[in-house]
Amino acid sequence: MLRILGKASSINVRKVLWTCAELHIPFEREDWGSGFKSTNDSEFLALNPCAMVPVIEDGDFTLWESNTIIRYLVSRYDGLHLYPTEPQTRARVDQWIDWQASELNRSWSYAFLSLARQSPEHQDSAALSAGCRDWARNMAILDRQLEKTGAYVSGEAFSLADIPIGLSVNRWFETPLAHPDFAAVKAYYERLSLRPGYVLHGRNGTP
């Protein structure tokens, strides 16, 4: 039985949970992180020295870093329909997974913490305005890509890239800020919402 360590409200844990839902992987999940068992406990640090969720244990194999985990799961549990082996097709999937981690995540950080989490340390109006603009700029990039494909982020078929991107889209719509009219992103949101795993672990009211 796959063991997943991390609270279900974490966007990075939800990547793993949604991937498990797509591949019908049974798992047991334990609450770790803010509000639950501390990731600074020695038990957790022995598994992940970075003290971050999620961590998985698959038998005697331990792995951390959410995007690495979901790539591992599709390779380990017959999910290559989500992560094709043809080099150029796989590279397109990886490109968008990495973009979500390196660009999109960074752009929404301040605005999300300010508006959704109401963090007292993130209430500077100038920084908030800049954060909202940067987030919208990246969502415009996504909107143009979805206009090109007419379906999913890396092409016509749902792929592993849609899991991190789809969770970020949910965060965009669930955060109380002015949302430009990105028609392709909105249609994508509804398209993803036909997938039971997304409804359960993405579009479930948790930003």
Automatic annotation (TrEMBL):
GST N-terminal domain location is 1-81
Under the heading InterPro entries, the entry gives: Glutathione-S-Trfase_C-like (IPR010987), Glutathione-S-Trfase_C_sf (IPR036282), Glutathione_S-Trfase (IPR040079), Glutathione_S-Trfase_N (IPR004045), Thioredoxin-like_sf (IPR036249)
The residue ranges of the GST C-terminal domain are 86-207
Q: Which Pfam families match?
A: GST_N
Q: Entry's Gene3D superfamilies? A: 1.20.1050.10, Glutaredoxin (3.40.30.10)
Superkingdom to which the source organism belongs: Bacteria
Q: What is this protein called?
A: Glutathione S-transferase
Organism (species): Pseudomonas tensinigenes
